[in-house]
Recover the amino acids of this structure.
DNA sequence: CTGAAAGCGCTAACAA
DNA sequence: TTGTTAGCGCTTTCAG
């Protein structure tokens, strides 16, 4: 900056003003400075700027696992929502590990992000990391929430999603002829918790199998059903990846979807519609959710860590497709 | 830091030494400082540290699109490879847009990352962004390369991958009975380019259909084939997402895979194996690739922008699955 | 409208 | 081993 100032024959203060744009100054001088900066190939050091301004124009996003298509899709959409703002979103994967998650939090707050969005890896285990974050920066729990944390929350109404599923089932499935089975996720995250809860409310007497949020678990669960000689059922999965795992295992053993097994997912990830038949699933309103995040962060910029906490839940919708169609009642 | 120093009755320099760990100091004092820092809830400001040290312990990763399972999987693995190091990886999605890509580059170099890994969005369009990056920081092009850029490159040997495909086809497919069709990607990225090239070398007279790297394109291409009354073919796709799109469209119209249509993918993304039948595909050696990235960055830390450029290509492998099995010659 | 100067938080010489 | 001090690059009062 010193060099640019010298080259343009002005002070560094003027260079700063010319480059950051805000302050009033003569267009002629600004022009000269911009030219000088250009010819010298000068690039502002955002570290210096941030140190002085106490604002980095960045927000951190911590996800449990970028290999999970739902989380990576969320990451994509968060970035897109912040596009029009002057804030950059950086994503960090915790690799489903609480230590890595903490490292991410510490790194982001150390780097003074203006906001931190976190999809907690674990319903209880993440508590301490989230506390750490929320002490230093406006923090938003996203998609999943650790109960009784003093942060914002943005997510979807999972119980309502399960209600949509139960309506669909009551309308189109003959429960007397076919068992109903929940291939769910163990309630170690709030979304798993709420979906299990929603299912149980709707179908208190139906069987529930619980594992991790993974395709492998879906495959394993389906194999177990087949080993038990189950040849027909309606499977409600806690996530699309689980549903896809189930379908794969069933179809590999020659069972038909939806004739033998209906399969219903949750999330609405893109690949769910590439399966054959494509998946009936509860789509989370991702755009609405990420818009809420943007709003909360922009607000937080003014209010700081002190502002009133908000909890925003958007309603999902049911997409009826071939894996559980609206016919043969 | 000042407060911590006062509370522990030492100088800020001592606080710094206690917290950064490196310099020799009496364990007793260190203990006292750590205690003081703890009780005051002090967190280092990494911006200040970086400004002084001229090192941020961070690398940026720019991907075209986090919604593409292949890119998000790469992002996940890059982060994992850097786990043992003290460097944090931050991912930024360019949203398949050259302006967003430039914004990402500017943001990362402005924030003084120690290294920048970029999957270019476009074979030519990204050139200027990559130049921008490589002027300020050690830059690695990943997975795709813009030709004649003065940066490192890490990727996979796409031509060799296509050779594996052609061997598989020659061994197991009767080309006289079934047309061979390449549902590829237009050569706007080097990987698309090289795969097309590899296919053309092996099968100069086969039909080639080119579009974007997306499932929709795969679906569209398959529909077109069906409209043309093609009822049987071996489809080589330029990417798994394209292959999955093809399979979906074919199966939706009642065609069978692999009996009517063989389908072969490229990349080896996780969801490819959840399709039914699961996809025969060329798996990119992701772990080896991200390990190379780590090495190049660690080297670059010492050598800086001046070091000799390296180009590393790892060999992929063919995974034979149900969508194009090794039978019926 | 522009310049001089202080200082954001930290670390590395250098001195003690 | 510890303290003093300068300064990383930037912006923003405060004067002029």
């Amino acid at each position: 900056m010193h060099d640019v100032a010298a080259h343009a024959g002005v002070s560094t203060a003027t260079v700063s003003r010319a480059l950051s744009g805000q302050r009033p100054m003569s267009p002629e001088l600004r022009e000269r400075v911009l030219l000088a900066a250009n010819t010298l190939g000068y690039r502002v050091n955002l570290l210096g700027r941030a140190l002085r301004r106490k604002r980095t124009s960045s927000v951190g996003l911590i996800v449990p696992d970028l290999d999970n298509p739902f989380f990576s899709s969320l990451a994509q959409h968060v970035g897109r929502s912040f596009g029009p703002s002057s804030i950059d979103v950086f994503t960090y994967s915790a690799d489903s590990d609480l230590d890595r998650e903490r490292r991410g939090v510490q790194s982001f707050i150390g780097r003074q992000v203006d906001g931190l969005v976190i999809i907690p890896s674990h319903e209880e285990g993440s508590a301490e990391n989230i506390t750490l974050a929320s002490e230093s920066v406006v923090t938003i729990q996203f998609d999943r929430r650790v109960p009784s944390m003093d942060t914002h929350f943005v997510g979807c109404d999972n119980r309502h999603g399960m209600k949509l599923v139960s309506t669909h089932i009551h309308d189109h499935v003959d429960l007397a002829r076919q068992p109903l089975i929940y291939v769910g996720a163990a309630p170690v995250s709030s979304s798993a918790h709420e979906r299990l809860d929603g299912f149980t409310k709707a179908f208190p007497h139906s069987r529930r199998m619980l594992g991790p949020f993974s395709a492998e678990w879906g495959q394993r669960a389906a194999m177990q059903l087949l080993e038990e000689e189950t040849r027909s059922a309606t499977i409600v999965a806690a996530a699309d990846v689980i549903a896809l795992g189930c379908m794969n295992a069933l179809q590999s053993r020659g069972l038909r979807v939806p004739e033998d097994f209906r399969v219903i997912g949750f999330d609405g990830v893109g690949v769910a519609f590439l399966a054959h038949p494509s998946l009936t699933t509860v789509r989370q309103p991702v755009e609405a959710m990420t818009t809420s995040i943007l709003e909360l962060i922009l607000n937080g910029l003014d209010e700081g860590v002190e502002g009133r906490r908000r909890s925003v839940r958007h309603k999902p919708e049911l997409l009826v497709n071939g894996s559980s169609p609206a016919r043969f009642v």
In short: The mean pLDDT of chain B is 95. Residues 10-14, 17, 23-26, 29, 48, 50-54 of chain B lie near DNA strand D (CB under 10 Å from a C1'). The CA atoms of residues 1 and 44 of chain B lie 8 Å apart.
